[in-house]
Specification:
Blueprint (H helix, E strand, L loop, with lengths): L1 E10 L3 H12 L5 E4 L6 H9 L5 E6 L27 H9 L5 H17 L4 E6 L9 H11 L19 H23 L7 E3 L9 H9 L4 E7 L10 H6 L3 H9 L1 H10 L2 E2 L10
Parallel strand pairs: 1-2, 1-6, 1-7, 2-3, 3-4, 5-6
Helix pairs in contact: 1-2, 1-9, 4-5, 7-9, 7-10
Length: 283
């Protein structure tokens, strides 16, 4: 049987993203969203999520670019002088792998974000992370321990093997590094009794998927559960300079999820639209 999770990331980072995700679920094919409780629009996202009970919602663990849920004074090696996390996944990874971030502070912040999700009355289906930093060696073990403590057993493993011809060499090189971390994380997750989709699609073409691109991904789905990660938003004018540097076509991804051809293709092939709860717990 073929099943697909059509997932929207960055829920909670901006009102326009929240609106796009809500529209993509209510009027399109989006089945899951990843909510950053550290985002400035997290409360609005949580309220929208509670009004959409059929939308699966995961924790978008955020250790990059935003401000911590913990007090900055309690996680000093995680933040800069401005009280924010490192600006990018690469900057975070460099600090983490060079041991300039204390593991106990990461644990404190992961626990704080899971606790904040409970405070927002979110029933989480899974965990993933902003810019996929949760699969970093050493950090991933902390994440699994805190997930187990919180009763959460499903997560994203961003191991992508699908092609995306438009991706440049730089993005392909980044995927190679990410895949190496993700393969190791997958083995550890399986050995620890956690569950994740059979496949992930969404790194090479992140923020640049149009209706034709999404249709091609749907047509290429195989047996099992595949997560397709997307970044819908209502409008391109997101009110933050750092968003502009990502080069995402936010409204184009929303249009893709609203494209009637997508639903027609899914229905014609009998593909189930699911969220992370479709991933059977192993062990």
């Amino acid at each position: 049987m073929i099943s697909v999770i059509l997932s929207g990331d960055d829920f909670g980072l901006a009102p326009a993203i929240n609106e796009g995700i809500a529209l993509a679920h209510a009027q399109g094919c989006l089945t899951s969203a990843s909510l950053s409780v550290a985002g400035p629009a997290a409360e609005d996202a949580a309220a929208r999520a509670r009004s959409l009970p059929s939308l699966g919602v995961g924790l978008h663990l955020t250790l990059v670019a935003e401000r911590p849920v913990s007090r900055a004074a309690d996680v000093p090696t995680l933040v800069g002088r401005d009280g924010r996390f490192p600006a990018s996944a690469a900057a975070f990874a460099l600090r983490w792998l060079s041991r300039r971030i204390r593991p106990e502070e990461v644990r404190r912040e992961v626990r704080a974000q899971l606790g904040r999700a409970r405070e927002l009355r979110l029933s989480l289906t899974h965990l993933d992370s902003h810019q996929h930093v949760h699969v970093l060696p050493g950090l991933f073990g902390i994440v699994l321990e805190e997930m187990r403590r919180a009763g959460l057993r499903r997560l994203r493993i961003p191991l992508e093997t699908a092609r995306w011809p438009e991706a440049g060499w730089g993005r392909r090189a980044q995927r190679g590094v990410l895949n190496a971390f993700a393969r190791r994380a997958a083995r550890l997750a399986l050995d620890s009794g956690f569950s994740f989709p059979d496949r992930f699609v969404g790194f090479l073409g992140a923020g640049r998927v149009d209706g034709d691109g999404l249709l091609a991904r749907i047509q290429g789905l195989e047996d099992g559960v595949t997560e397709i990660g997307l970044h819908p938003a209502a409008g391109e004018g997101l009110p933050r300079e750092d968003f502009a540097s990502w080069g995402y076509r936010w409204s184009g991804e929303l249009d893709a999820l609203l494209d009637p051809r997508i639903r027609e293709s899914l229905d014609r092939r009998g593909i189930r639209r699911v969220n992370f709860e479709a991933c059977a717990i192993r062990g």
